[in-house]
Design brief:
Layout: E1 9-14, H1 17-25, E2 34-36, E3 43-44, H2 46-49, H3 59-65, E4 70-72, H4 76-93, E5 97-101, E6 104-108, H5 113-116, H6 119-133, E7 138-143, H7 146-156, E8 161-163, H8 169-173, H9 186-194, H10 200-205, H11 208-215, H12 217-227, E9 243-249, H13 257-277, E10 280-291, E11 296-307, H14 310-331, E12 333-341, E13 344-345, H15 360-374, E14 379-380, E15 391-394, E16 397-400
Parallel strand pairs: 2-4, 7-8
Antiparallel strand pairs: 1-6, 1-7, 2-3, 5-6, 9-12, 10-11, 10-12, 10-13, 14-16, 15-16
Helix pairs in contact: 4-6, 11-12, 13-14
């Protein structure tokens, strides 16, 4: 019986995604260290990473490590467009695509051997297609499980391709450091290393009962299984997100409560529109904070009924922000984020009494339609508006004059 020795799962991961888009769009940035984001590093090119710059690093620290770096402001619309183009390549390769984030996905190509070749051949073609059609570098790992395919792509970065044959899986996996195991962060790594465990192979060699004694049952069984490359999860097509979020880096300058409210309103407007476009509802709003001393905090609130209303979500976010304000003023804030969770499919739901009053859902959908047709900046809140020569007040918002009818 003929047995495949590679695949069938590909893990495709764009390299330094935001920075690569900037280098693609501006030839002057190619081959030079690029940092996306001034207050906090959202992405760094590999030229900047070689100098020690890392994602989520304070911007001042990053510039100290790499003074010659070129710092650019993030362009989320450009990154979203590039992601959509790359995912079109993925879906042209196989219908079995599971998006993990804006810049990575798992693909199952196990049924394509007769028409497209081996997984290694398909992966090579995928990389060429992304380079030719989107102009971005991408790394692909090929393996029998999702876990090992992701590890392979991580080892192959940047702009590489690594195939792990079935018969060499443990030979490849076991010499790697324990941090390559999913779920092994700083705390778990420190516990393992304190017991002399430094490689994946050493985890595999431990009795799982010993691991349970200092990691707990869930974590111990999870990493022990991965150390043996036991990962039965299939590529899940059409899996819907359990949450959506957005954040804003604030830099080191102290912000007033009014300025923080403006940021929260901007994030809510963005997230509420995404929620409605995805035809989802949400019940829980979570506020995420990062302080000047690099500590973090979260606060969440669940509303009584599922909603897509911008005003309901904004009121909830403002409640959370007001409650956290004493902590913010005391410690300083460098990042503010919001996420929406407890998501469900949008559909008929029980209306609340009284029924009289303005139909805010109609206002939301009308504003969504205007932004879709004329751009996201065509309608905005007065508090978010800088200086414009001509504005029109529309339903409590401000519309820039575009000259179009």
């Amino acid at each position: 019986m003929f047995v495949l020795s590679e695949g069938p799962i590909l893990h495709a991961d764009l390299d330094a995604f935001y920075a690569s888009v900037e280098q693609r769009d501006d030839p002057a940035l190619r081959g030079r260290p690029v940092i996306v984001g001034a207050g906090v590093v959202l992405a760094a090119s590999y030229e900047a990473r070689a100098r020690g710059v890392r994602t989520a690093m304070n911007g001042r620290q990053a510039r100290a490590l790499c003074p010659e770096a070129i710092v650019v402001q993030p362009r989320m619309s450009a990154y979203s467009a590039a992601s959509k183009a790359v995912f079109e390549v993925f879906r042209d390769t196989t219908p079995l695509v599971e998006g993990v984030s804006i810049d990575e996905a798992f693909l199952d190509v196990g049924g394509l051997r007769a028409i497209a070749g081996t997984p290694a051949v398909i992966a090579a073609g995928l990389r060429r297609a992304v380079a030719d059609r989107v102009g971005l570098p991408i790394t692909v790992g090929v393996a029998r499980t999702k876990f090992l395919a992701k590890v392979a792509s991580g080892v192959a970065k940047p702009d590489g391709l690594l195939v792990v044959p079935h018969e060499r899986e443990l030979d490849f996996l076991h010499p790697l450091p324990i941090e390559r195991l999913w779920g092994v962060g700083k705390v778990t790594s420190a516990k393992l290393r304190s017991h002399g465990i430094r490689t994946v192979g050493q985890v595999a060699g431990f009795d799982v009962r010993e691991l349970v004694s200092f990691l707990g049952p869930a974590a111990a069984r999870h990493i022990h299984a991965l150390a043996h490359n036991r990962d039965p999860r299939p590529v899940q097509v059409g899996r819907r997100r359990r949450s959506i979020g957005a954040q804003r880096a604030l830099g080191s300058r102290r912000r007033t409560p009014g300025e923080l409210d403006v940021v929260a309103a901007e994030l809510v407007d963005r997230l509420a529109r995404r929620l409605r476009q995805a035809e989802r509802t949400c019940r829980t709003v979570t506020l995420r904070l990062r302080f000047a001393d690099y500590t973090r905090a979260t606060r969440s609130l669940t509303v009584p009924r599922p909603t897509t209303s911008t005003e309901v979500l904004l009121a909830t976010a403002r409640t959370l922000l007001a409650a956290a304000l004493p902590l913010i003023l005391d410690r300083g804030l460098t990042l503010l984020g919001l996420s929406l969770s407890n998501l469900d499919n949008s559909g008929p739901h029980q209306m609340e009494l009284p029924f009289a009053g303005p139909d805010l859902s109609t206002l939301d959908t009308t504003l969504d339609a205007v932004r879709t047709r004329f751009g996201t900046a065509s309608v905005t809140r007065a508090t978010l508006l800088g200086h414009a020569p001509l504005v029109k007040i529309v339903a409590g918002t401000v519309m820039r004059s575009t000259g179009r009818r």
